[in-house]
Amino acid sequence: MQCVRWCAWSLFSDPEGPGENVCLHLQGGALPNPWGVMVYSASTQQTNSGKCVIKFKFSSSVEGASCSTALNVSHRETSPPKKLLSAPQDERILEPMASTQQSPRGPALSLSQLVATSRYPTMSHTVGSPWQQQLPSLLSPSPMASAHQLSHVERPVAGSIAHLELSVQEREGNRNEEEDEMQELTFTPVHAPVITLGTHTAGSSRSTSRRSLAQLFSSGFPQILDTQNQVAEVLDASEPVNFNPQREEADPLQANTLILQFLAFTRVPQAGVISDWPRTVHFTFQLYRFPPVTTERLKLLDPERNSKLKSGSDYPCVLSVINKDGTFSSGCPGLQLQYRVDPQFLKPGERGWFLRYLALHSLQIDVWDSESLMLIGSAAVELKHMLRQGRAAVQVNHELEVITTEYLQDASFASRHDNKHSATPAINVYTTVKGILHLRLGNVGGSVKNSQSSLDLPPSLSHVVQPSDAPQGFAGGGVPALTVLQLNANNARRARRLPEIDSELARLLQSTMREVGGATLHQQAEAKEVRQRKIDRMAAVRQLEEQKATPPFQDSSNITRHRAERVQHSRDLRVIEAYRERCKAQEITNMLSQAITTKHTLYASLGTAEFFEFVLKNPFNVPQTVSIECDDPELCVMVKTEEWRYFKELTKTLTPLEEEMFHVKESTQTPQVYLRPKESVHVPFKYQTFICGHTFPLQDMKGLKTSRSPQMAQKHLSNTINAKSIKVLFRGEDRKPLAICQVDVEPMPHVVDQTFRFYQPELTFLKKAIRLPAAWDDTADGSATLHVRCSDHNVICHTTNLTPGEPQDVYLKVPGSPSPQIRKFFITIFTDPWLASPAQIWQVYVHYLQRMDLSCVCGTLSWHSLVLHGTQAIRRVKCYTSHPLELQVDPGEVFALPAHGVQDVCVGLRALRPGSRFFYLNVVDVDTRQLVASWLLCITCRQPVISKAFEISVPVDGGKGSNKKISFTNPYSSSRVFNLRTDRPDLLQFKEEQFQIGGGELYTIGLRFAPSQNPGMEEILIFINDKQDKNEDTYCVRVQYR
Question: GO biological process: any one (predicted)?
């Protein structure tokens, strides 16, 4: 609960006693309040300094209780979110919104907002020490952030998130009716803000029994051993970690082998799915800046075959790798992944940032159903227990709740506005636990052979690029193969054939060779035919001639061939000579430009600004106005002195700084600098990119590794920016280059702090707002602002600067794509004014599905048809649904989808609960495990008319339940067959689910109510359907568990 506005009222402040009507002014904004908690103030223009008025009636004795009750009701969900009242001063006032559950909701199709709660800055390559860097005020750690768990949309008890669409408020003050220009209304477009909080539901305590744990760890999982083959020290996940950065950095074992062992998965009973769901799973995650990982398919082994556990108990199912042929692996159970982090993998100075990542970040793991390729849920695990703190090896076991988001009510989200009020009903959103993931983490220390790698940051001069004054060139002489490796590549080159250098010349020479080759073959064929004819004619006199071979030079065909070769060689020599004359000037210019070229390498990652200074010297005795030209917009000159000073202080670069150093040419926007004779200046540059590859392959399990050996993560750079080389030309007044700076950009993967997944109908815009944590404390100078950038230029991403203390939202507008494509992009969030290093990097997935709206009656089976289009090749596919007990598919088995064909898929819907819900239907290629098509089914279920109602009492903790009977009379004159259904099959079972009675006869329905562990009341519906599963009657049974 958060205090929105507050007021103080003393019952006995008035000497004459309290009046009947009381009018109080509510205080709001960034002001202290009696409770000392965060105060929320709407960003609106009001005439009374943001104050609101609340009116109520006060009376004594019994009336006081009723009036206070009525006052409390105004803070509940039943009251409208915004209500305009009339004050005595005839001013319009706005009643405060006391609960976020009253807020209008946003797009109801953006499901499963899954994020991780690491709210700490990522690695910056320009800060002196990762431990001395001040945490941004917005992302500072709070006592509530110690769990570092997965973040979802809402919490079920406190801080429940509502989906908001538009909040329109009228602007105060009188408007001039004669104005022609329309006045814009003050409003804040909020689209279902996703709050980055924890995910564990309040009071949730799921723990595996000791018997299940004993059986689980006796399955033979591989042990985590140190370099001395000793079992790693086992840590308790519930105990705090005493972290000492100095001890970690001084550890002699500089190599760290991070081990992730996926041991087992515990199913949690779910409504609408079978008891053994899921059967196979796989996981996706990204650790640090390693490539994203999609694991192999894992089978959930049922322990009932070898144990006496009850079928209804929540027992862990051991995971086993599935081979390519569908068989189970014969090795150790579970899946083990290893990542080696050593000085060869880390950049200079990165070790401290890696330890910081382990100490403060959490790893988000997405759990997928490998058969249907549907997301089961997500889990988050703290990585701080992987810090060894001087120990040889450590390990820790975790039981992680796999959580997802459920939506049960879909009201119309069309925004409306009138002169009196604007309100939209909220959507019912909550989190649910889908299962328990048993995970073991470990870290094994290792020694490094070559310990000369630098573990500290480079000196400050590394940000200064100084051109070399030494003469560069090659002294001459031979260049043997062994000497080439020892010479500088800039000074020595091995001669290559001209066709290998110039592709145009190679194509020209190759075409002439083909022509000559064809003519030679034709001449050889003619010579062979003439020779054979001569042999036949002279067969009679051949014995009289001398048996002597004809010399090669006397063969006419050989003479012709040699003559053609000489002609071709002459032609090639003329072509090559013309080529050399054409390229001579260019090659000489390139060789001369190398003498004034200075190379500098940047190791850049997404969103991180890389700063360096280039020392530019005027070699002439006359002053020069040098123009700085660069064709890459991501590399620019810092023309603002404030920005230059900020980066110099950030990188601790001790070089001179000048005010108003550059002049920007208006026509070309090219910066220019004035240089005196023989003068040298430092030119500041900044390289920063927000563009990253967005190609996301479909869920394809074909390329996964199936080796049982531990999979070592290789140093392959995926999910990174593009490598490139940029040239910066410093041209004098005569347009000739004075110096050239060649910047080689080496991409480095970035750390992903949080991951969001949204589901959206195809070819429609996704509008979403992600709300940042409320721990916003303004800095002393008031310069802390929020900036966001997106890696996809087609995605609109922005934020609004509000008063300190106000909740900050990041707004997204994502264009649509065809189904089943997935759009992937990154959002970088900055809290510093010059966007030096991102405070957080978010990874966003938008799954596009085909939408279909279905309407049905609760408990009644209705069939609908979908059209499935074939792809370019024939496929063997199968349909999967998210709720197989409520959604049937025909055909339900594997069938052939013809190429470019059309297949009708029939969907049988029998919803068991009224309201609006969302179901998913996936069509999966069973051979390649690819997603062929995907539907988002928006279900609107109406409750049938209840004809009879009953009420019974069932004891709690009795263990036996209760047996009851109700009578049913066939209203027809003929014999009929009836089916019995219920919306709570977990609480009610029928003696016979189908029966047949004659016309007008009476039948007794036997009911079996299951026992409950908690007291309370449940309403259970009994559906009596006909043979076609159409509803005939509906009974309601109210069960009191006492």
Answer: negative regulation of canonical Wnt signaling pathway
